[in-house]
Amino acid sequence: MSPARPRRWLAGLAALGVGLTLTGLPAWLYWPWYAYPSLRGDDFAFLADCRSGAEPFRSLWTPHNAHVVPLFRLATAGLARLAGSLSAVPEMLTRASLGLLIGCSLLAGHIVAWQTGRLVLGLAAIVGVGLSTVLQSAATWYSASQTLMAGLLVLAGLAAAQRAVVTQRRIWIIPAAVAAWAAPLAWSGGAAAGPTAAVYLALSRDQSLRRWAWLPLIGSGLAVLMIGAMAGGSLAEQVGSAVAEAAQPASPIRPITHTAQAVVESLVMGNLGMPTASEPIQAVVLVVGLLVVFWRARRGSEGWPNPLEAAGLVLIAVGYGMAFTLRSGFDYANLRELGWYHTLPQLGAVLFGFGWLAGRSGLSPNRPRLPALVEYLGLGGWVVLAAMVHQPRAEALRIADAPPMLPSEVRQFLIPELKYGRAIVYAELRSGRQRRALTRLQRAAEQARVLGLDRSAIRAVLGPVRVPGWPVHVTSIDALDLVRLPESGREVPAAAVAAALGPLLAPEPLPRLPWSDAGDPWPPTDWATVP
């Protein structure tokens, strides 16, 4: 064996170790959410629909907020069953969100590394996805992670298309089309998978592959037709309701201005760790200016935009375009907090950014070369810079998640470090109370089955049942819908129901925190409805 071969093996193992280390960065950035998991918002509705994994097929094609997500529903049912107990579900779902983020970062890194022929750029792309607070909503809230699931399938389809170019084998276009079909079934924005893979293949130098660029489009089109066939009527009602809720009539201009504002505020300033607000005209001018700069910088270059740049731009445009067309009756101020809208465009921004860095070297994918020492040093600087930019933003988001301050807390928690510590205490308190409530709920369900009680009999005696974190606007279901109970039961005296289930389903008292004053209103907020 030549001396060069062991060195290559060692270099390869070093690169693998670096890559695995980088995939752990999101767990560090968002550790409070992962350390103290809790269900919130739409999580309860999705769990109730699948009865914690027991009956997922009843609601498989039921629209939720104008999205038909059968793959996400199946995943939710499987994860709930895999968790074992109801109290373990929050931790399981939180791990799933982290796993999806890691999967997206690895696929983005793989695509960038092969397209540019430089492994160090692929490792840097892992950081660009995993260490950006632009993805905070999807990374820390399970219901929003359906956008990460769609993003994972979009990137899988793009990776398959890239493999077709690398191997010059058209057979790889078939998994690209399958991924393009599956992505919209995880989240509606996943329909961007078809156009993204198609434009990548269309810019290939292989004419035989370019002729098959339409196949991923067919995959996404079939998914849209399937959704229409299975949920057309109910989906039309929800879309109509969403349009009716808008304060203004739908506008063909607003999706363009909303997209421009999202690009400036999230993909540009958000990735710089500087949240900002923009006006529509201002945002449009800035985005047009960025495109002009890109055009002038690459004008005259062979093969521009390169396939990675084009795929990234399509993912940004289609991802935002679909979301904001449906919400075109709203001002952007009403949509600014919907952070999961930025998931697919953020993935597109990473692809575009590293495609731009590659320039002409990104025209044709090839096996990436291992990094040199100086490249590792540059990568280390990139990691440190990203951490310095996004870690303070993550802390600010964690502080914003805490309940509003009590009068005495306003006087005591004056600096960000103290506010962050307070937020961690509340997160731990919220997570623990919810976990214990879910444990009691499961025990109550077991006792109810022994007594032969159904949900209506329990509600007739105890009223609607809530657990900490239950959204105040969700009144059509309650916590009893999270467990499997008989559809109909036998009559049991109300006193017996109250004696058997009342102590288990009663809210846990919230202990007054030691730093609060006796004059403070307590609890600080309705802890049955903390989001």
Would you mind describing this structure in some detail?
This protein has 22 helices and no strands. Helix content is 64%, strand content 0%. It has 531 residues and is mainly α. The model has no long low-confidence stretch (mean pLDDT 88). 45% of the residues are buried.
Offer a concise description of the structure.
By secondary structure, the chain is an all-alpha fold. 64% of the residues lie in helices and 0% in strands.
Helical region count? 22
- The assembly state of the depicted protein chains is single chain
Biggest sheet statistics: none
Number-wise, the strands total: 0
Cα distance, first to last residue? 61 Å
Coarse morphology: globular
The ordered H/E elements are HHHHHHHHHHHHHHHHHHHHHH
Radius of gyration from the CA trace?
25 Å
Helical fraction equals: 55-70%
Present the secondary structure layout.
Layout: H1 4-23, H2 25-29, H3 31-35, H4 42-49, H5 70-83, H6 89-116, H7 119-130, H8 136-140, H9 146-167, H10 173-186, H11 193-202, H12 207-210, H13 214-245, H14 254-268, H15 280-298, H16 307-326, H17 343-358, H18 373-401, H19 407-412, H20 416-451, H21 455-462, H22 494-505
Helix pairs in contact: 1-7, 5-6, 6-7, 6-9, 6-17, 7-17, 7-18, 9-10, 9-11, 10-13, 11-13, 11-16, 14-15, 14-16, 16-17, 18-20, 20-22, 21-22
List the defining traits of the structure above.
531 residues, mainly alpha, globular
